[in-house]
């Protein structure tokens, strides 16, 4: 049958069953909510195996290099930025990463693929360490890609993942947001979904001026449920969200940063949104619809306030900060780099 994400797949029950307040697949639902929304096929404790990484941006802030190199491939210390993203997803238990790309971004897929010629040459030459580097991609989740032919916005990019992800909860990682290596954020967001259902986004404390560059949220603090490794005050119920609000419409000090754990019901929402901020189909306008949706239909929107370092590598200064900070922590580079920076700053 041709059905949208989040709809039940079972054979329709006779009308009398509807009156008995049961949806087609036997989930118990209040009749009113079933008539208004499709039933979510995704259970809250369903494991999260998919991540979607939108990588179709033009990287205009990094021109001219992005004429020929995808911005996701720019190195942070000794690895392309995208490797940190895939590693973070893998560490959180994700086994399947889907890149949403466009023409000219093939270097991303090549990076996570085998290179049999190179592997054979290195093996023959006995260059074991180099061979190890070349094979590192095998430690990570399996990667796939789909094209976003037209740059119509982040919401449109995520919709391209619908048939790949199907009716399962999935993570979204925006590659411009680099979390410090070893980040536990995604793992904790998955715990929240498993405790409360619905969708979960990462929140960052910002100034009102900064908030205008993000999705701004209205929030209520929630008690932390058992089994969720968060401190009191770190878990929020989101009651409203606006993409890139003008200063006088900023909702709170909490802005959404690029880590999301979404119920598949968001795909149906994304199919029904209109172009929003900047004339684009905004992901924010899709998950905002989860606020009014009952839990049985995949609804509910929660926020986790991040307590780890995050770098905005989509910005030149943020990119340099990530490089310097992580290089200073690198055992092979940190000592000499620190001495060099000290001497430079004394000049
Ligand atoms: C995107 C999202 C925005 C979010 C931000 C986080 O904006 O649209 O809601 O707050 O990422 O980094 P962008 O930075 O692509 O303009």
How would you characterize the overall build of this protein?
With 347 residues, this protein is α/β, with parallel strands linked by helices. The chain is built from 14 helices and 13 strands. It has helices spanning 15-19, 31-36, 81-91, 106-111, 116-124, 128-134, 154-159, 162-165, 185-196, 208-211, 265-271, 283-287, 316-328, 334-346; strands spanning 50-54, 75-76, 79-80, 96-101, 142-147, 170-173, 177-179, 199-205, 215-221, 235-243, 254-262, 301-305, 310-312. It has a five-stranded mixed beta barrel. α5 (116-124) packs antiparallel against α6. Bound molecules: 1-O-phosphono-alpha-D-glucopyranose.
Keyword list:
binds 1-O-phosphono-alpha-D-glucopyranose; five-stranded mixed beta barrel; alpha/beta; two-stranded antiparallel sheet; 347 residues; disordered N terminus
Q: What percentage of the residues does DSSP assign to strands (E)?
A: 15-25%
Taking all residues together, what is the mean pLDDT?
89
Count of DSSP E strands? 13
- Biggest sheet statistics: 5 strands, mixed, barrel
> SSE string, helix = H, strand = E?
HHEEEHEHHHEHHEEHEHEEEHHEEHH
Short description:
This protein is an alpha/beta fold. It has helices at residues 15-19, 31-36, 81-91, 106-111, 116-124, 128-134, 154-159, 162-165, 185-196, 208-211, 265-271, 283-287, 316-328, 334-346, and strands at 50-54, 75-76, 79-80, 96-101, 142-147, 170-173, 177-179, 199-205, 215-221, 235-243, 254-262, 301-305, 310-312. The longest helix is centred in the last third of the chain and has 13 residues, at 316-328.
